[in-house]
């Protein structure tokens, strides 16, 4: 049973920073891709950042230069460091993981496994 558990969300003022974490357990495959997507109130899912199966990093244009995706050496925890936050970054943030085939930024919301989400609220 694969489990992804996010943490690190919260409320910050515009210009602030947060670092999200996603701890994974139960994943047995050798290859994977993993990433973050978000859903703002009244909007659809948006792939935000991804680590591809070859280690390539991808970012949505809306977060390039502000967000950084990374993972720990043991590769069990995924991070999303978010800087220069704006009210439009307010959303529920989810981490997701798949087996590493045909992984795309836009496809993150459809990955096989996802966490429960962590809320990020940015006030002006």
Question: Can you put this structure into words, describing what you see?
Answer:
It is a single chain. The chain contains no helices and 11 strands. It is mostly beta strands. The strands form 2 sheets. Strands 2, 4, 5, 6, 9, 10 and 11 form a 7-stranded mixed sheet that branches. Strands 1-3-8-7 form a 4-stranded antiparallel sheet, with no helix packed on it. β7 and β8 form a beta hairpin. The protein is globular, with a radius of gyration of 13 Å. The termini are far apart. 32% of the residues are buried. The mean pLDDT is 95.
Shape: globular
Which strand-content bin applies to the residues? over 45%
Query: Which blocks of ≥5 consecutive residues have pLDDT under 50?
Result: none
Can you count the beta strands? Answer: 11
Instruction: Report on the biggest sheet.
Output: 7 strands, mixed
What is the ordering of alpha helices and beta strands?
Answer: EEEEEEEEEEE
Average per-residue pLDDT, rounded, comes to 95
Q: What structural class should be given to the helix and strand makeup? A: mainly beta
């Amino acid at each position: 049973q694969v489990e992804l558990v996010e943490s690190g969300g919260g409320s910050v003022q515009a210009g602030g920073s947060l670092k999200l974490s996603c701890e994974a357990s139960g994943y047995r495959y050798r290859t994977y891709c993993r990433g973050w997507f978000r859903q703002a109130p009244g909007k659809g899912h948006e792939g935000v950042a991804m680590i591809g199966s070859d280690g390539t990093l991808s970012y949505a244009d809306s977060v390039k230069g502000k967000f950084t995706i990374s993972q720990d050496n043991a590769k069990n925890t995924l991070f999303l460091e978010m800087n220069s936050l704006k009210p439009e970054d307010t959303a529920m943030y989810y981490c997701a993981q798949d087996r590493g085939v045909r992984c795309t930024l836009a496809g993150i919301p459809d990955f096989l496994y996802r966490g429960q989400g962590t809320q990020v609220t940015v006030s002006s």
